[in-house]
Write a structure and sequence with these properties.
- This protein is an alpha/beta fold.
- The strands form two sheets. Strands 3-2-1-4-5-6 form a six-stranded parallel sheet, with helices on both faces. The chain has a four-stranded antiparallel sheet with strand order 7-10-8-9.
- It is elongated.
């Protein structure tokens, strides 16, 4: 039962369902309605004719004639059921009519499959994912982000939404061609079912920041529960992003300037920070759930426990949406706290599940 539920709820079936709904809205329903009515009329006339010409004209004989007509249309009829010229002619006509019906149905199915494959290849489909990450826009940061996430211990499905003819991302990233600030394109990327949306400006201009603000507003309108993280070009635009409701933002120029200043004063810091925030070998930053068995423990006790059992170093604690570092020794952990640690891998620690915390 669980496997069946998982199959029905798969991303692939949701994509097929989305394409089916899209295709059916463009189908001429009057044509198929007329085809169905015509089929019913032809079968009724054929069954009646065979009933009059071939049988004793009882009610059971009419049912048998109708069954023969239906099976003949689909190529499964019993040729020995009729034995008069009238029955033979009707059988031939039903066979020809059946070929036309089957060809029409087959053509519709083949057309749907071709349309599905073409739209998917052109980025015109729908992701169908849940609890995934949507990357809006493409630049060097987005490229490095995809590379970083591909090596992270906590795997997540990635969807790229940008206005490119072809996907610039690796094949394991689902590509949606469109405008990140467009509601319909965001829904095709599955932003309403996503965990996080990352907005990357296409270039370093102020206009790109304005587009990012519109994207944040669109996401907050469609899915306010989704966590939004934005790369900002101009620090002067930060208040506008805050008013738009962004959850987290990164001003690349300010981060680079601060890191260069600290590295100039204290050599070696840039290498350390780069190692912590980059993928590959070495220790990385993780945000994990607080083990329930350490609630009420002091900061020193939890730090020692993390070092001993998980080879992790405690850097900060997040409580009620606020991050605290360099805590006093009398700090006590409470239920609902989560930890920011440095470790080579997650190990037995559990990554934080609540993206809005």
């Amino acid at each position: 039962m669980g496997r069946l539920r998982h199959l029905v709820d798969s991303a692939f079936l949701r994509r097929v369902s989305w394409h089916f709904r899209r295709v059916t809205t463009k189908i001429d329903r009057r044509f198929f309605a007329s085809l169905f009515v015509g089929l019913v009329v032809v079968l009724a006339i054929a069954a009646l004719s065979v009933w009059l010409a071939e049988t004793d004209r009882t009610l059971n004989d009419f049912g048998a004639s109708l069954h023969w007509s239906v099976t003949t249309v689909f190529g499964q009829g019993d040729a020995s059921y009729v034995s008069t010229p009238v029955g033979w002619v009707i059988g031939w006509l039903l066979g020809i009519f059946g070929v036309a019906i089957v060809a029409t149905i087959t053509g519709a199915l083949v057309g749907f499959v071709i349309d599905f494959l073409l739209k998917e290849g052109q980025g015109m489909g729908a992701s169908g994912y849940k609890d995934h990450m949507v990357i809006c826009g493409w630049n060097a940061t987005a490229r490095d982000l995809v590379t970083e996430l591909s090596t992270d211990a906590y795997k997540t499905q990635l969807v790229l939404l940008c206005d490119r003819e072809r996907s610039p991302a690796p094949n394991d990233v689902y590509f949606v061609r469109g405008t990140p600030s467009n509601d319909a394109d965001l829904k095709r990327a599955g932003v309403d079912c996503a965990r996080t949306a990352v907005i990357c400006p296409d270039d370093g201009s102020n206009e790109a920041d304005m587009t990012s603000i519109l994207t944040v507003l669109a996401i907050e309108s469609i899915a306010p529960q989704v966590r939004t993280v934005v790369e900002v070009n101009n620090p002067d635009h930060v208040p506008h992003f805050r008013r738009a409701g962004v959850d987290e933002l990164m001003v690349s120029s300010k981060l680079a300037a601060h890191l260069m200043a600290r590295s100039a004063l204290y050599p070696g810091l840039s290498e350390l920070v780069t190692d912590l925030v980059s993928g590959g070998e070495g220790s990385e930053l993780y945000r994990v759930e607080l083990p329930t068995d350490v609630v009420g423990f002091s900061i020193d006790d939890v730090s020692a426990l993390l070092r001993k059992e998980h080879c992790a170093t405690l850097l900060a604690v997040n409580r009620n949406g606020h991050t605290f570092s360099n805590l006093a020794t009398d700090f006590k952990f409470e239920l609902g706290d989560d930890l920011i640690v440095v470790a080579e891998s997650l190990g037995k620690l559990h990554p934080l599940q609540d993206s809005r915390a």
